[in-house]
Amino acid sequence: MASPTPVEDTIREKITANLKPTSLEIHNDSHLHAHHKAMEGSTSRETHFRLIITSDEFRSKMQPARHRLVYSLLKDEMAKEGGIHALQLRTLTPEEAEKRKQAEEGA
Amino acid sequence: MLSRSILSRRLLRQTAALPTTATASFSTAALRLPTTTTFSSSTRPLLRPAPASPLLRRLLSDQTRQAIDKAVSSAPIVLFMKGTPETPQCGFSRASIQILGLQGVDPDKFAAFNVLEDAELRQGIKEYSDWPTIPQLYIDKEFVGGCDIIVSMHQNGELAKLLDEKKVLVKGEEAEAEAAEAKKE
Predict the structure, then answer these.
(1) Which residues form the Glutaredoxin domain (chain B) (predicted)?
(2) CA distances from B173 to A58, A60, B169 (A)
(3) Is B183 exposed, middle or buried (0-12, 13-18, 19+ CB in 10 A)?
(4) At B165, is the secondary structure helix, strand, or coil?
């Protein structure tokens, strides 16, 4: 049987294979945007994603370079008609993720 | 300014002359021909209609690149967005505009371009910036990032620092002086 979440599966596969993340969260926010004008006529339930990726691959890269890296991996999925419409990214190195966690716990 | 009005007058004469020299079937062609768009691109950054073929659109033409170059250098802070600052058509564009407002960006040093108004800009800017999504922020002609980067730079203080360094914020004293002036009147 076909997966009910083919796009999410592809995202997970590609990110995992290429970035070897120490942590990967994939949130499908498509339902929040289903009524947007841009989504008129779209039947896909996988249009809006929010990714939180922690990977060593991001080390010594500025944020735009990290985002470009992720975009390039998902190029086909984003370019496809009815594919990914919006992709929110948080890209961290393991150290940054640790710092963020500590800050959140402290707050 | 002068040269442009001369050009457009000459252009008017040319298009007006067309139906007399040609048969009636020419007039529709004249209507469709974008003879004026090359000139109006000097008033608006981009007006040329997008090429019909999606394959052609993938290649950024020199003309589009130049128009985007011009847009990017039209102000110290430039945002390519969906909709206008007053009525954004997308939540991410809205968030970006709100942050620039919160930071106190001087409206005189800011320009926004609505990609929904222009299919060629919408496609072209993605290639130009090597960035597949809108909004896109440029500061001093340099690509800064999309919405997520704007938000995180806003939260960690980097954006405030950058905008201050670039001297694009409404100055506190000026703002106060203006407020005082307004009070007097």
Answers:
(1) 77-144
(2) 41, 39, 11
(3) exposed
(4) helix
Of A20, A87, A88, the C-alpha closest to A57 is: A20
Neighbours of B162 (CB within 10 A): 15
B78-124 per-position pLDDT tens digit: 999 999 999 999 999 999 999 999 999 999 999 999 999 999 999 99
Q: Which residues contact B68 (CB under 8 A, 6 or more apart)?
A: B45, B46, B121, B124, B125, B128
The CATH number that domain B4-184 falls under is 3.40.30.10
Angle between helices B158-165 and B147-156 (to 10 degrees): 90
DSSP state at residue B83: B
Closest residue, chain B, to A90 (C-alpha): B148
Write the single-letter amino acid at A49.
Answer: F
Residues in chain A closer than 8 A to B132 (CB atoms): 71, 75, 78-79
The ipTM estimated for the assembled molecules is 0.90
| Residue A87 to residue B133, Cβ atoms within 8 A | yes
